[in-house]
Amino acid sequence: MGPKQSLEVEESNNIDYSGRAQWVRAAVLGANDGLVSVASLMMGVGAIKEDVSAMLLAGFAGLVAGACSMAIGEFVSVYTQYDIEKAQIKRKREADNNNNNKGLSVDDEEAEREKLPNPFQAALASALAFSVGALVPLIAAVFIRNRKIRLGIVAAVASLALLAFGVVGAVLGKTPVGMSCFRVLIGGWMAMAITFYLTKLIGSSGL
Description:
- There is one protein chain.
- This protein has 207 residues and is mostly helical.
- It has one domain (20-204).
- The chain contains seven helices and no strands.
- It has helices at residues 3-13, 17-48, 52-98, 106-114, 119-141, 147-173, 177-204.
- Helix 2 runs antiparallel to helix 3 and helix 2 packs parallel to helix 7.
- The chain is elongated.
- It starts with a helix and ends with a helix.
- The model is unreliable at 3-12 and 14-19 (pLDDT under 50).
- One of its GO terms (cellular component) is vacuolar membrane.
């Protein structure tokens, strides 16, 4: 192994997977939420409605509402974190000044501020991740006219996408692939099944 290869191996071993896990978690969870929420909503509507347009309209409404909800929630959460960390930098500077310590230089403090989370970027990323996941069942159902086939296709495509999300999250976060896929797949199946059967039950009761 040459010097260049040794350097590449060393850099690979020094990757901070705990830091990477934050954005991996946000992206995978956002896409997974979009997929499971919209697929379950479409399965519920499809349990009592023959018309494909009703199923697609419900899925689209779920995509828009979910993306907006995710963006607002992430913005508020990250902005709170931003305020806390910004206040911490200010307290540290004041404490250093009171103790006549050198404290952070102007450049160091600017670097610390640049590390602060961006609420707008977080909100946009969360909304986009949710939308990507939500588009999967919508695209799968758009050209299928038969209700039973359409429901089967949505469930099958959602299952494959869940497995893909599980693999991506496990590989990027360096966690066991099998367990990651198992968790997201079982969770997605449970959400779709519960929504389907409860909606069918309520619909058949005439409520």
